[in-house]
Amino acid sequence: MTLFDSVNHSLTTMATGGYSTKQASIAYWSSPYIQYVIIFFMFLAGTNFTLSYLAIHGKFDKVFKNEEFKYYILFIVGFTAIIFSGLLISTQLGFELAFRDALFQVVSIITTTGFATADYLTWTPFLTIIIFALFFFGGSAGSTGGGIKIMRVVLLLKNSYYELRRLLHPNAVIPVRFNRRAVSEHIITNVLAFFMFYFIIFFLSTIVYTLIEPDLESAMGAVATSLGNIGPGLGNVGPAENFHHVHPAGKWFLAFLMLLGRLELFTVLVLFSPAFWRK
To answer: Could you tell me which residues come within 8 angstroms of residue 1 by beta carbon, excluding any fewer than 6 positions away?
Structure first.
């Protein structure tokens, strides 16, 4: 990279913004070194910056004991392994390139950076569905990443698992624990409400956007990537395309969704509550 390109990509990587100086994004540079460097700093940008501060001061034990960080790594490793295996089976890519493409796309999307080195829409549909599922994860709390956030995903999964245990043992007191501390019912309710609002807004917005973009795949991809502040979507807004062709009304609508997702729903939705204005 030139100095100009490297400065620009450093800024947009650590901000998980995903903008590139090239239309082809990071795919413009076929250098494995460049791509691995960006992978590392996307991973860092999607990590809680408190943990980065602790790591700088040598407190690595606290970093690796953090439960959200463990799940953050687990999700990245797990989804990378699935996509990597799928690419080896369904494509003619070499071992290293398949691994790099899988890892780059997973880290880029789960941190909501939005860079691309491969067009995942050309992969087998199973892998595209996996990529689409990543749109609903997001980075760690306290990071520059957008999306739902890893902490909420983990609390939702834990609460669902413990709810099954409570059904089997109705007299047992089984609290949801995070970082070895019991999570209050208020927080669990807040997380469940967030998920409910998030997916209701996703489905309703997809329906509305189909009035502008009749292709359902493109509509779902555009809405999901806007809510999650990711960048590339599906269909005609995939990683090999952009949003230049979207109708102005669609751009206004997607801009609102990006704002809604970045402010994490409740901050914006409360403005539409009559009780807020009465106070």
So the answer is: 9, 29, 34
